[in-house]
Amino acid sequence: MKYKLSVFTILLVGMAASAHAVDVGDINVTSSRAESAIASSSNTVTLIDRKSIERAHVENVVDLLKGQPGIVVSDTSGVGAKSQVDLGGYGETGAANSLVLIDGRRVNSPDLSGTDWTQIPVDQIERIEIVHGGGSALYGDGAVGGVINIITRIPEAGGHVAVSGGSFGSYAGAVSAGIDSDNARAEANLSTAKTDGYRQNSLFERFDVGARAESDLSSSLSVRIAGNYHRDRTGLPGPLTAAEAAVDRKQSNNPDDFAQTRDSFADAGIGWLNNGLELDLSGGLRDRKTHAEYVSFGGTSDSAIRTQSLRPKIIYTVQGNLPVRLLVGADLDRSRGNFEYGGAFPLPATSIKRDRSGVYGQFEIGSETGRWNGNLGLRSEHVRDRFSQAATSEVSSRKTAWDLGGTLLLTDALRLRLSSSQSFRFPLLDERYSFFSGTVDRVLKPQTGRHYTAALRYGFEHTWLEASFLRADLRDEIFYNPIGGFGFGANENYSDQTRHDLLMLAGHWKGGDMFQFGGNVTLSDATFRGGVYDGNAIPAVAAIRAAADWTADWSNLLQSVLRLTYVGSSYLISDQANARSQLPAYLLVDVVMSYHLAGMDLFARIDNLTNRKYSSYGVWSSFSGDNFYPAAGIGLRAGVSYQF
Q1: Can you list the positions of beta strands (E) in 89-124?
Q2: Rounded to an integer, what distance in angstroms lies between the CA atom of residue 632 and that of residue 77?
Q3: pLDDT digits (tens, 9 = 90+) for 282-316
Q4: How far is CA 459 from its chain centroid?
């Protein structure tokens, strides 16, 4: 890999992960689908804890992910409503190549709509676990670049009330209340937010209400249940050309286009633990409906998808000189839905069905002192899709995956991680099916990959530093070819191999309450290897991303966070030929001040302090040329919350 390092990047290496990423000695449940120390994971793990989340005072989840190692966030709306998260350097298909979970429940949509990040209220998050690298052996379809697991807070007694407001006509409010008895805990929450947005027709508003409860029926048996209802509406301002943005980057060529979503879920589980044997039976129901009106060209779209899921697993642990853990489980999903396109050019309604069934197992062994450990995982997964328009078509695929890894404590302060794994991604419903012609693309194959990870972590007292190298060699990578399909564009498999290399440096140093520094640098080299685009960079993958934080506790009551986030230039989406101008690099500066008094917390946050004019998303089209989606300029938000 060849990179040009600026002085800014070198300084970040010297500081080396975001202050939001805490020490990996903490417990996680994502890297092994069972509670364990992150130190035992053969994959690199980033953990964003509750304290960091509370200090950030962000309005949405994607703002917590910005600047994290290996992650780039792209936003087409300017308010976070239509954000895409790329974990691992996959560009336009980043959303399809990473798996997002809430408490272990898959939230990726089976179609191209991706993850709806606005359905996750920040005030309900306990922590976020990010596992970098292939995770298909444990999680199956789509866990190519990694897994993001958002873990919600355990119900607790008391509650909180919060209100905030700021630039662009923004305001938000949240309230929660809970109880905690000897054997049962329950909590209910409600939140709402609205903003006019930075650009014309970028209004966004949402409403969420939910509840969680859990009970210990005995010393070995427990039950839990959770549910949430989400509603949102967002304007679709659309892209601008470079010339249009130079005149007025706040304007919109689509002043009346909008989309709205209604999304609800109910999830429940039963757990039993006795003498090293743990049984967990979890499952749920999700119902998602979307409606969009594209007044700019007289079209509408409607979709409705209902998904039932079941996630049983058994964990058996044996303690001793060589602790052993065996995990066996299954993931069973059943999705049913309808898609309809109307307006000036209506299409026949299409019903879809997707059945996904996967079985997996993982074996772990290690030393009693934790000096070394190893793991082996296996999975087999089957997906069957059925489409009904004028006629019914069916296509099915089966894939297997494995992972092998381990860790070794070289010295008291230095740990080595090594892993190798396979991944797979099945085509999404609207990658496989054409709603216009009513035909199934039977040529499109599942994508497969081979992954390698090597990492060294140094940790001593108030300092830690980790260097990780990740390589993914993909075959049949699914991408959108803008000149495929007789020149009109088509989803295709790349005919040869693609390679995605990442070098991540992350660390943190605490020199006292006033001097808490963190930073990370990600160097990415994503290229086509062979074929018509041999040697070209994969579009929308920035070669350099970096972040740096300075956190200061001025007193027991007053804290501040200064954050820098840098994203390097990248080729526009659909510019596989690397022939167009690039999406320019940008550097953002954010500042947060918070003051705590008794149960009250006051804060003020300034985003994009230097009022940088930039776009995090750009795409080339053979019909309209280069298109950019301007991001928000400087914005101020302030608020107050009370804990009781």
Answers
A1: 98-102, 105-106
A2: 9
A3: 999 999 999 999 998 889 999 999 999 999 999 99
A4: 27
585 alpha carbon, distance to own chain's centre? 22
- C-alpha 286/C-alpha 362 separation (Å) is 28
d(CA 73, CA 50): 21
Q: Judge whether 72 and 565 are in contact, CB under 8 Å.
A: no
Distance CA 185, CA 180 (A): 4
CA distance 121 to 511: 33
Q: Which residues contact 17 (CB under 8 A, 6 or more apart)?
A: 46, 68, 69, 466, 506, 507, 508, 518, 519, 520, 547
Of 25-34, 125-134, 166-175, 582-591, the least confident: 25-34
Q: Which residues contact 66 (CB under 8 A, 6 or more apart)?
A: 73, 547, 565
* 8 A C-beta contact, residue 463 and residue 433: no
Q: Beta strand pairing status for 146-152 and 98-102?
A: parallel
Using one digit for the tens of pLDDT, what is the confidence trace for 367-424? Answer: 988 899 999 999 999 999 999 987 889 999 999 999 999 999 999 999 999 999 999 9
Furthest CA-CA distance within the chain: 71
Q: Is the dihedral of CA 605, 91, 544, 459 positive or negative?
A: positive
Give me 318's structure tokens.
């044996």
pLDDT in tens, 220-278: 999 999 999 999 999 999 999 999 999 999 999 999 999 999 999 999 999 999 999 99
CA distances from 639 to 110, 298, 303, 325, 428 (A): 37, 41, 36, 47, 41
For the record, the structure tokens of 223 come out as: 């039950």
The SS3 assignment for 106 reads: strand
Distance of alpha carbon 535 from alpha carbon 528, whole angstroms: 5
Copy the structure tokens of residue 200.
């014309």
CA distance 203 to 197: 5
Residues sharing a CB contact under 8 Å with residue 566, sequence separation 6 or more, in sequence order? 8, 9, 12, 544, 545, 546, 547, 585, 586, 587, 588
Closest by CA to 446, choosing from 508, 502, 385, 377, is: 385
Q: Which residues of 116-144 are buried (b: 16+ CB within 10 A; e: fewer)?
A: bbbbbbbbbbebbbbbbbbbbbbbbbbbb
Name the token pair of 567: 């994203």
Point out which residues pair with 603 in neighbouring strands.
Answer: 594, 639
555 CB contacts (<8 Å, ≥6 apart)? none
Residues forming a β-bridge with 499: 473, 527
CA distances from 122 to 128, 193, 595 (A): 11, 12, 19
CB-CB neighbours of 643 under 10 Å: 14
Q: Which of 39, 23, 26 is nearest to 371 (CA)?
A: 39
| Residues 6 or more apart whose Cβ sits within 8 Å of residue 411 | none
CA distance 156 to 458: 36
* Helix residue ranges per DSSP H, 234-352: 242-247
Q: How far apart are CA 440 and CA 147, in angstroms?
A: 29
Phi, psi dihedrals of residue 246, rounded to the nearest 5° = -65, -35
62-94 in b/e form (b: 16+ CB < 10 A) is: bbbbbbbbbbbbbbbbbbbbbbbbbbbbbbbbb
Contact status, residue 106 vs residue 116, Cβ threshold 8 Å = no
The H or E element spanning position 553 is strand 544-553
Task: Residue 354: name the closest of 394, 304, 399, 413 by CA.
Answer: 394
631 Cβ partners below 8 Å, 6+ apart? 75, 78, 198, 608, 614, 615, 616
